Amino acid sequence: METYEILKAVKSGKISVNDAKKLLSLYSIEEIEGIAKIDINRRKRRGIPEIIFAETKELDEIKKIIKRTLEKSNSVIVSRLKKTDYSKIQTFAKKLKVKVKTGKKSSTLLLFKKPIKFQGGKVGILTAGTSDIGVAEEARLVCEAMNCKCITSYDVGVAGIQRIFPILKEMVEEDVDCIIVAAGMEGALATLVSTLVDIPIIGIPTSVGYGYGEKGIAALASMLQSCSLGLSVVNIDNGIAAGGIAANIANRTIRKKE
């Protein structure tokens, strides 16, 4: 249970104060054989699950962290897996009898024990092109791990500007609480979307582009220089951060409505 859920349970009389104290006890940091210190209590404290940055870790280290984390919590995200480790972690998850969610063109996995209930807010996710999908899917996995329903539409960039209007109409009708926009090249889609709706927009510049301004530099500069208010920006290719921010916004919005 997250902190907010624990407090609600106390208020409704479902659990006692003593039980709540136990649930909120500070066993937040757990060290695994000198490899990593897991923030077990992050989910209770912030609503964000443990996220393993796998790019620089050995396969055995990743497995140990996954196993220990899932002993203490329902889910864990493994981000930026090496190609050689991707299928091996999926096989490892089967041995642990946990389920796996994957993302298109993404090297990130969501592992979980009990089914994830989409009782949180709603997040819209857009990409300018198909090259941006992997980063957007990374954000989606984080949002879903945080119990948010995601409405996605990919390849709707300004090269064919007419494509954006039907999906934006759907997102407004669905009353999404936040929209993530992943875009490379000049990154114009994030600014465009933020001029059309009264919804918080999170821009992810992606490392897609040619020559001068390549590797996301032009998209990052463009989004940071946007003249449209209501647009915030995360680092290049940082779908993890965008997903965490968007889901926090969406989930806080849901709480206000309760």
UniProtKB/TrEMBL annotation:
InterPro entries cross-referenced by the UniProt entry: P2CMN_synthase_LarB, PurE_dom
Keywords: Isomerase
Enzyme Commission code: 5.4.99.18
GO MF annotation terms: 5-(carboxyamino)imidazole ribonucleotide mutase activity; hydrolase activity
Gene Ontology BP, a term: 'de novo' IMP biosynthetic process
Stretches assigned to the PurE domain: 121-256
Top-level division of the source organism's lineage: Archaea
Listed name of the protein: Putative N5-carboxyaminoimidazole ribonucleotide mutase protein
Gene giving rise to this polypeptide: purE
